[in-house]
Amino acid sequence: TGYLYNFFMYRGAEENRPTNMPATLWPVHFLTEPTDLHGKNHVLCTDNWYTSVATIEEVMNEPNRMHGLGTVKTNKKYLPKDGHSPHHG
After folding, report:
1. Label partner for 66 (CA 20 to 30 A): which of 33, 35, 81, 85?
2. What is the CB neighbour count within 10 angstroms for residue 72?
3. Sign of CA dihedral 28, 29, 31, 37
């Protein structure tokens, strides 16, 4: 149907993620890794747990070249006060 392409099941401490990658960014990185998704104007939608400047930059930058859309908590760590990424305006 095209409604579900891929999914990520959170495994807590059993997760095999890079030590320098935040737990909220790892699923986004994992799910946008397949190259057949890259550069096709896909939109990754996330809830306020996963939405961050880092998440949007992850999906917009090479090699993904996707769009990001998500709800966000206004007090989220590292979110600029004006709500705009310093890199993407």
Report:
1. 81
2. 17
3. positive
